[in-house]
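Take just one protein record:
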Amino acid sequence: MSGRLIDGNAVSASIRSRLANRVSNLKEKGISPCLATVLVGNDPASTIYVQNKQKAAKQVGLVTQDHQLGDNLQENELVLLIDSLNNDPSVHGILVQLPLPKHINKFNIINKIAPYKDVDGLTSSNSGLLLHGHASLKPCTPSGIMELFDYYNIEIKSRNAIIVNRSILVGKPLALLMLERDATVTICHSKSVNLSHLLSEADIIITAVGDRNKFILSPQMVKENAVVIDVGTNRRSGKLVGDVDFESVREKASWITPVPGGVGPMTIAMLLSNTVTAAALNTASTI
């Protein structure tokens, strides 16, 4: 029996519907939630990502600002822009699209964003709050995955989960969120030993490698009835695919996300949710 499909498009549509209502309610109070996106350079994938985020934001009624900058922009110039957005009361959320050009220090730039406008949830302040279980603005992809678990009533308490990723965008914050829900979490990466064996004993597998030349999750790595969440994105012959050998792994999994249409839509939905939350919090703090 094939694993049941986790439909990120359907779940994100439900979230966006609720967000549209929240935005409408805020506008009735004179608050127009605004998301500012900042893109440095002309990387095609990043350009598409930002366009999709802008489009989704407008669909739920958010006001948007789109800042597209050349790849020769200097770090101090980017800092000045972020300072300006921090000080603009009409802007409630700031998203700096990653990756940045190599001559710009990512850590410095992320931490120039005011924590209460940090809709990616990546500043040191919000990361620390997440560690303590008190973050209001959480990283979007991990939050989206937790929403998928909840929507489909997938139990994670006391289950063994392996995350194949150790980034600040996915692996580390997701591990904290799953620990809060009493999962037993292992983070694996390119230097992990006996990865296939470890995976074969996991109840839940979340993979976010994004390079099929280095890693593909095959059915031999998956035990019967495991939950498989695929965050990876790869281009093969012009087609978007994930880290998972989908059709064969689906025969063993109890639940599985497709690529596209799984985690991707949830990442954008949670970005919008964070922006609406930031607007509400920012306004409350000024009353």
Observations:
- The radius of gyration is 19 Å.
- The first helix runs from residue 8 to 28.
